[in-house]
Amino acid sequence: MEKTEEFIRSLHLFADQFEQMVKAYDDTFNRYIELEKTINDYSVFITKESNQIPWKVLKKSGEIKDLINNLRENSAYSVKIMEKYRALKLLNEDEKSNRYFQNIESCIEEEFSSFHITAQSKVLLVGSGSFPMTPLLIAKRTGAEVIGIDIDDEAIILGRRVVAKLGDQLNIQIENKFVEELECIHDITHIIFSSTVSRKYDILDQLYDLTNNEVLIAMRYGDDLKSLFNYPMKTVDDTKWHLIEQVLQPHNVFDVALYQKA
Fold first, then answer.
1. Residue 114 in contact with residue 57, Cβ under 8 Å?
2. Domain co-membership, 181 together with 224
3. What's the rounded mean pLDDT across residues 185-203?
4. Domain enclosing residue 15, as ranges
5. Which of 7, 45, 147, 167, CA to CA, is 20 to 30 A from 181?
6. Residue 28 binned pLDDT confidence (cut-offs 50, 70, 90)
7. Mean pLDDT of the chain
8. Alpha helices, DSSP H only, in 114-179?
9. Averaged pLDDT for residues 94-119
10. Contact 40, 93 (CB under 8 A)
């Protein structure tokens, strides 16, 4: 009981911190250090094995449903802010990695083991953000053409500047477009969804009619305790998509579901 109460207190503390960060964001670096520490601590919290026990007790009771939604939305938005900070710091020659971004980079490395990309691949990332780590890593490692899309104007501007600085020789495009607006959508071979894209399963359903029959989908998600930081996996229409593999990463902040057309 004591462990469960301590767990709830931690959830409320993180919820308060994220809410304050979101409200206080003013396009400056004023809260950067504080936000960095909160996100790093939260990354540790949701991957800590001992937190699974109180989580399961509380999830069964259903008493923290609103708190879960609050944490997921505000932590996801805080990551977007953190990416903007990281991009601006890089562009101002003062970029340093932190635990959250190291964890994400580790997730991407593990993702590659099951998601076979070559120089002939054409990859789409839905939700590229202000610091497009995935496009940079894929293009650098494989030579593939990579397109990142986002609907945040500021993220597009920063993302393009980061790519120009870190990968100006790489075949990467960053576009402010929806999937249906991409002229090349039928030629895409691999599609990756960021875990913090809330509508990812709606977009997946939409992609069935837009894409070729060989396309492979990597859906980043977080279930159970990780759902506090990511949008969880959902059931898909099995006449359209088949789940072919789950890449579980216990020590990383998200897992990956791989789909192909039925």
1. no
2. yes
3. 95
4. 2-99
5. 167
6. confident
7. 89
8. 133-142, 153-166
9. 62
10. no
229: nearest Cα among 4, 32, 40, 53: 40
Checking 211-216 for CB contacts under 8 A at 24+ apart, the result is 211/185, 211/186, 211/261, 212/186, 212/187, 212/188, 213/261, 214/189, 214/260, 214/261, 215/188, 215/189, 215/190, 215/191, 215/260, 215/261, 216/115, 216/189, 216/190, 216/191, 216/258, 216/259, 216/260
Determine the average pLDDT of the residues in 213-238: 94
| pLDDT on residue 110 | 60
Q: Considering only CA atoms, give the Rg of the chain.
A: 18
Distance CA 102, CA 98 (A): 6
- pLDDT-based confidence at residue 101 (cuts at 50, 70, 90): very low
Q: Do residue 14 and residue 62 come from a single domain?
A: yes
Number of domains observed in the structure of the chain: 2
Assess whether 148 and 255 both reside in one domain.
yes
Q: Do 234 and 191 sit in the same domain of this protein?
A: yes
Residue 31 corresponds to which amino acid?
A: R
114 has pLDDT over 50: yes
The DSSP call for residue 184 is T
CATH code for position 211: 3.40.50.150
Q: Which residue has the tokens 């399963």?
A: 201
| Strand (E) or helix (H) holding 55 | helix 52-61
